[in-house]
Design brief:
homodimer, 231 residues, alpha+beta, Pnp Oxidase, Chain A, 2 domains, 4-stranded antiparallel sheet, globular
Chain lengths: 231, 231
């Protein structure tokens, strides 16, 4: 049996409860497919949200930032809500009311902890690199102690979490089905669109395979094959 | 002279203040390029954030939802922070520390108002349709009074807002420039990847031009031409 997260008051979907997914593997798969999350926190009583990269080690999401980061300071003094969303398409119904979006998302609630142990800090850098671009860590200069000291790392336990998704065609009302209006899904994908070499520094280092075949996103060429044209 | 938004305490960037953009045209351009935003709000004292579609009429962003939406109910009783982000690429430096992301984002702070006037509600539906998919509104059945009544619409004034962006190559430390490590930008784009007809209802309606040539996103074919391969 697959492991499931406990359903709490705030991970209960009030509308369309059938869209709520608490399966650990499904949630981790959505988290691992992304590389940018949105972190919401409260600052002076008001909500704020910022995009940032992230990594995962086991049941924790790791987020890095400068010691001067307003987001990290505020987030570490309270709770956060971390959101990862993959947009898969626009759902074009015959009525404007039934238009929708196909997506997969995960929301994680929690009280973040600061990571101060130097070994865990370094491991979190490696996890971030591995998460965003597998293969990169072995090529780059790892952070030195000055860089580690000027970086604040926080971790959020993935324990109170819910995934949601919508997929497939529009759901029109029966009385709209015969309208003279094209209906269906407009597919949207994030793709790897090429690599541009830094004009500074050494120019003779070959483009690594892990960039050419960026595994998080299909390339334009792969995309062409996967393309599902309207018939 | 281009119009600028007033800089407030929370739209002041504490780090890298040079990345802050308050120009009205630049902010509206980033908002208009997107179709999904993230709305952060406070619920029972804790932060929450959800993705949703949006439209714009002049200086207002409009967001729709069900009358039962927890997000709209909570957002309308306080403040929100609305975030729109376009991810343009991963920035691969020679040190892990200097890795970054190229992006364009807008953050809008404000106290949303509920839109109750039926004409403005209908106009906001039309703005949403126009914003997400130009040309769509003329083809679909517009919302009837029952649908309008079961929809809550909120508007947020775009007045306290800041755009941020990063573009271009990595910024490595001088002493890292000769490392045996490829550095540069891994370009990322959202593309229109095809249209899939709804298997239900009429099957003889031609695919509209505004879907085939979806103007918000490049198609796979356009993407190939724009592609900047590493040399």
């Amino acid at each position: 049996m697959t492991e499931k997260y406990e359903v709490t008051d705030r991970t209960t979907l009030k509308r369309r409860p059938h869209r709520g997914i608490y399966d650990k593997e499904a949630i981790q798969a959505i988290l691992d497919e992304g590389f940018m999350c949105n972190v919401a926190y409260v600052h002076d009583g008001a909500p704020r949200v910022l995009p940032t990269g992230y990594g995962r080690i086991g049941d924790y999401i790791y987020i890095h930032g400068s010691n001067q980061s307003t987001m990290l300071t505020a987030a570490l003094s309270g709770e956060v809500c971390v959101l990862v969303t993959h947009v898969d398409g626009l759902v074009l119904a015959r009525s404007l009311y039934n238009h929708s979006v196909n997506y997969r998302s995960v929301v994680v609630f929690g009280r973040p902890e600061e990571v101060t142990d130097p070994e865990e800090k370094l491991a979190s850098f490696e996890a971030y690199a591995r998460h965003v671009l597998k293969g990169r860590f072995a090529d780059v200069r790892p952070p030195n102690s000055k860089e580690l000291n000027s970086t604040t790392v926080m971790r959020i336990a993935v324990s109170e979490a819910v995934a949601k998704l919508r997929s497939g065609p529009p759901t029109d009302f029966e009385f709209d089905l015969d309208r003279d209006c094209w209906a269906g899904e407009l597919l949207i994908k994030q793709v790897f669109a090429g690599a541009v070499r830094d004009p500074h520094g050494r120019q003779d280092v070959p483009l690594p395979q892990y960039v050419q075949g960026y595994e998080k996103l299909p390339s334009v060429e792969q995309q062409k094959v996967e393309n599902a044209p309207d018939t």
